[in-house]
Amino acid sequence: GKTCRNIILEDASGVYQNMYSLKNQYVILFFWDPDCGHCKSAMPKMIDLYEKYKSKDVEIFAICTEAEVDKWKKFIQEKNLKWINVADPHFKTNVRHEFDITSTPQIFLLDKDRKIICKKVDVEHLGDFLDHMFKEKVKDLN
Questions:
Q1: Is the confidence at residue 142, as pLDDT, over 70?
Q2: Are 61 and 19 in contact (CB under 8 A)?
Q3: Three-class secondary structure assignment of the chain
C-alpha cells in the first residue's frame, strides 16, 4: 500500500525515462539481469504477459541490475523487448537498495497512483492477480 517513489533512469537509447510520467492504470516494475538463469526462464512468460495486458493499460518498467551495458542492450535486442527498459549501470541511484533487490527477477505491481499493490511476486501469480483485477473491474461496471 505504500506509494512508490519516482524512478528516473536511462533507457538503452540514452534517454531518461520517468516512471511517474506513465499514465497507465498499472505499471509492473521488473528488476532483472541478463545473466540470471531465473530471469532468462521468466522472460518468455513476461513477454507473453505483456502481450496479453498491454492493451489493457498495463506497462512494464524493466530495470536491469546488470552493470555491463553491452550485455543489457544485446539481450533487449535479441529478445525484442518492447516495454520500457532502463538501467543504472553506474549505480548513481539507490533503487536496488530501496526495493531490497538482492536477487533477480523481482516483480512489483503498481496501481495508477503508483501505490504498490503486489510485491515480489512471480510471473504466473502476477498474471493470475491481473486477471482477478480485471474481472473485478468488469463486475464493478455491471
A1: no
A2: yes
A3: CCECCCCEEEECCCCEEEHHHCCCCEEEEEEECCCCHHHHHHHHHHHHHHHHHHHHCEEEEEEECCCCHHHHHHHHHHHCCCCEEEECCCCCCCHHHHCCCCCCCEEEEECCCCEEEEECCCHHHHHHHHHHHHHHHHHHHC
Q: Which three cell numbers stand for residue 49?
A: 504477459
In 10 A of CB 7, how many CB atoms? 20
Query: Do the beta carbons of residue 109 and residue 121 sit within 8 Å?
Result: yes
Bridge partners, residue 64, by sequence:
32, 87
Looking at residue 138, its pLDDT comes to: 56
Contact 124, 45 (CB under 8 A): yes
For residue 35, is pLDDT > 60?
A: yes
Residue 104: phi and psi, rounded to 5, are: -130, 155
As a whole number of angstroms, the distance between CA 87 and CA 95 comes to 10
Which residue type does 78 have?
A: E
Output the nine-digit C-alpha cell for 37. 538463469
pLDDT the model gives residue 139: 56
Q: What is the pLDDT of residues 66-104, one digit of tens each?
A: 888 999 999 999 999 999 999 998 888 889 889 999 999
